[in-house]
Write a structure and sequence with these properties.
By secondary structure, this protein is an alpha+beta fold. Helices cover about 35% and strands about 15% of the residues.
Length: about 325
């Protein structure tokens, strides 16, 4: 997903200063096994861009490259991957994830909130200082996701992010992907935001996949979408202490919620999706009955609450269903 729209940083009052919550350490310890430092990410992207334009071009098709249709995909023996590491997913399955009822997300988030986040082991975003400028894209609050197709923790987070954002707008051209087959939780199925688009009357979403899932080679994973100057600044400023523990800078996924909240690392973790099919994962995570689906839905519910805080409770058709306890709930509140 890429959108070169004009952005601005508007000085609008925000939330309270952040403080690290109790109960975060287990998540960051597991995330530390695959983290990349910001300098390493940017250096790898620069190296890949300079090394061989032809090789990179062959690994990363144009953003508007046509993916296989569902009919074409069904004729293939397996998911037909593109050079970007993506494959076509049936639209009905994607809609099943997008259409998880809002009330289900809110119910699971409230259950986790009442348990202090521990009941379902769901992490919350960090609230940014009140003096932080609001990030606007096309005059609307902008949410930025920076991840990579190889990243297993990005894979779990995308499920909840798609559930949440679908309550405020619509995705187009979402594709499937799997995390690296050689990393922890190998071959975890997920969405990819590469080549996708998002439309909403209330906010802007930019999802960049910095690397694909091919490899790794001695040089690492092939680069896909390099962060622009603003995204590089956000990584350098917020993917560091006090927003992450000392020595744990540079983790992905990195989600910047319009200057009001930041989330580094996944809200929830699992190895149970490793090597399952995309269809099976979608079915499990939308069942509403499994422990995994409750985790994914709770994480999405917390994101919905944060987004309603950013959009000032708009649209009412969504945000009036969100209890005040979830509006802007973050580690600086519940920790």
């Amino acid at each position: 997903m890429s959108d070169n729209h004009t952005r601005s940083l508007a000085m609008v009052p925000g939330g309270a200063a952040p403080r690290r919550p109790a109960g975060r350490e287990p998540v960051t310890k597991r995330r530390g096994a695959m983290k990349k430092r910001v300098s390493g990410i940017l250096a790898a992207l620069a190296t890949a861009a300079a090394a061989s334009a032809g090789a990179v071009a062959s690994a990363a098709p144009a953003h508007n490259a046509k993916l296989l249709t569902a009919e074409e995909a069904s004729k293939s023996p397996g998911p037909p991957e593109t050079a970007a590491g993506t494959f076509t997913i049936p639209s009905a399955l994607a809609r099943r994830v997008e259409d998880v009822p809002l009330d289900d997300l809110v119910t699971q988030a409230m259950a986790a909130h009442k348990a202090g986040g521990a009941g379902l082991n769901v992490r919350l975003a960090e609230k940014l200082p009140a003096s932080n400028p609001l990030l606007l894209g096309k005059g609307k609050p902008e949410i930025v996701f920076l991840g990579a197709e190889y990243c297993p923790y990005c894979a779990t987070e995308r499920w909840s992010l798609v559930m949440a954002l679908s309550k405020f707008g619509n995705f187009s051209h979402l594709a499937g992907t799997t995390s690296s087959s050689t990393d922890v939780s190998p071959s975890t199925p997920s969405f990819s935001f590469y080549g996708a688009s998002y439309s909403s009357a209330r906010l802007v979403f930019l999802g960049d996949e910095m690397f694909n899932n091919h490899g790794p080679s001695a040089a690492g994973y092939p680069a896909l979408q390099a962060p622009d100057a603003l995204e590089t600044m956000l990584l350098s400023k917020y993917d560091t202490p006090p927003y992450v523990p000392a020595g744990d800078s540079g983790g992905i996924p990195f989600i910047y919620l319009a200057g009001r909240f930041v989330l580094i690392g996944p809200q929830w973790l699992t190895s149970q999706l490793s090597r399952v099919s995309w269809a099976e994962a979608a079915s499990t995570l939308t069942s509403g009955t499994s422990a995994l689906s409750k985790q994914a839905e709770a994480a999405a519910g917390f994101l919905v609450g944060d987004i309603c805080a950013i959009t000032r409770a708009e649209p009412a058709s969504v945000c009036t269903h969100v209890p005040s306890a979830l509006l802007g709930t973050s580690t600086s509140v519940t920790g």
